[in-house]
Specification:
The chain is an alpha+beta fold. It folds into 3 domains: 114 residues, Potassium Channel Kv1.1, Chain A (2-Layer Sandwich); 91 residues, Serine Threonine Protein Phosphatase 5, Tetratricopeptide repeat (Alpha Horseshoe), CATH 1.25.40; 288 residues, Kelch-type beta propeller (Neuraminidase). Helix content is 27%, strand content 31%. It contains 17 helices and 35 strands. The strands form 11 sheets. The chain has a 4-stranded antiparallel sheet, with no helix packed on it. A hairpin with a 2-residue loop joins strand 31 and strand 32. Keywords: Kelch repeat, Repeat. It holds the Pfam family BTB.
Length: 572
Amino acid sequence: MTTVNNMISHILNEAHYAHSILKKLNEFRCGALFTDAVLCVGHEEFPCHKNVLAVSSPYFQAMFTSDLKESRESRINFNEISPRILELVIDYAYSGKIEINTSNAQDMLAAAHLFQYPAIVKLCEEFLLQQLHPSNCLGIEIFAQLHCCENLQAKAHQFVLENFTSVVESDEFLELPFERLQHYISIDHIDVRSEQTVYSAVKSWVEFDMENRQKYLSELLENVRLIYLDLKVLEVDSLICESEKCLSLIQDARLMQSFHETQPGKRRKSKQDIFIQPRPSTVAKDVVVVVGGISADGHPVSSMEMYDPHKEKWFSLADLPQPVTWCSVAVLSNCIYVAGGMLDNKIISKVWKFDSVERRWHTVSPMLKARARHSAAIIGKIMYILGGVRFEGKMLNVETIECYNPKSNTWTAAGRTTSPRIESCVVPYNKTILEVGGLKGEDVVDKFLDIYCIVDDVIRPSGEQLTLPENIRFAKIVVINNVFYIIWEDLKKMIALNDKERTFKILSEMQDSRIYSGATVVNGKIYVTGGQINNKATNQVESYDPSTGEWMLEKPMIESRAVHGCVTLKMC
């Protein structure tokens, strides 16, 4: 109740009044009551109210208020839209509701763009962005460009570049017009592992319609960085041999290859001068790789993933040949070696090698003795295996140290340790190996950092033993610029040990305490991956930047894992 100038009044404000009116108008429409327009598509007719359409859309407002014939006529014909889509648009005009799905998204976006319904356009764009896939991204990009959807076009274009290796396998790729293909392969940042992918894509596209496309081959090859291909193979390719222009490009690339081999660092003018540098994606760069482990439900994990810090994305790699756990994982000559561990509740001596170029696993010579819960370190081009347990009627600590020579594919004894550890963490440094954490003897936890020196491929205790500030069981240790970073996983603590001064410095703590995680260094940052948080494997990843002294969360792994390998590998 309100009082105005001594007059008493009541105000009625029905919250849903407008909605109920619109709902009633929609009922009138469905019954063809009071309608003054009929929208027609083919043989389908949809009675409507002009005022409702005009209020909902600038397109219809202009149509019904202009001097166009539609403003004077009751029947309006549309040819560029299907009856079902028009019906959905009309339903939206009366209700404000619409459902977008895979079968109608593109047609609905086209209609919404025509009839000027920006909310529907936005919804369709968001839906299509979620549907982007190597099999459809080319079509979506062209579609978005046609309908002036700049955001959708830009993101579809970026998706094409980032997934080019998969995109070229799609049917859409083979249907590309020449200009679009030329545009893509001229871009420096298409994501391919090797230039061979680009050449193979060009060849497939030409061969798909030889009669009409062979004439474009030489122009396309001008955008392929031929200097990085096997030119001997290209010179005998029947597609190349039939074109003098193509052979000329191959010859020029051969001269460029010879020039760079004989005079590295110098530049030589070439028909392909702007394409002398390799595409960034074909240059191997350091990535984080996690291997195997135990899942959140306690089962062995066979998968392997890599994290590219530049792209901030995880990618799947080839699975382990067998679901081994409690193994050692190390990188030697840019190949990953997985040695020993537990398989089907048995301790094994098997060793596998992951070739980073082939992206395949191979079996190599087994260790001299089976062991699990051990560590591996690389010094020079030799891999050393320390600690762990073996089974001989009962579990025994392993005192012997083995070394592996990949050149001869052989294992030899490399010394003994009087204080073998299990589940320790090691880091190589010059001609020494530092070992910390884990358990000694009868489950003893200590605060010592053991140092081993290597002379003629034989490991001996250096006689030096550093005492840490407190006992450490779940440890990680890495080295950056002659500074050792030691992490107490379960306590979140980390210290820096200066090699020359032998002094400790307390650093900022990790965001979460965990055990059985992995740790490695990429581009000067420490990455801690997975592990168990509250007794359950996680996919969480943290990184520490020594330049800022801060920890931050990174993109989580695809799969949760603990007790896994975590190494740095050069990959492209």
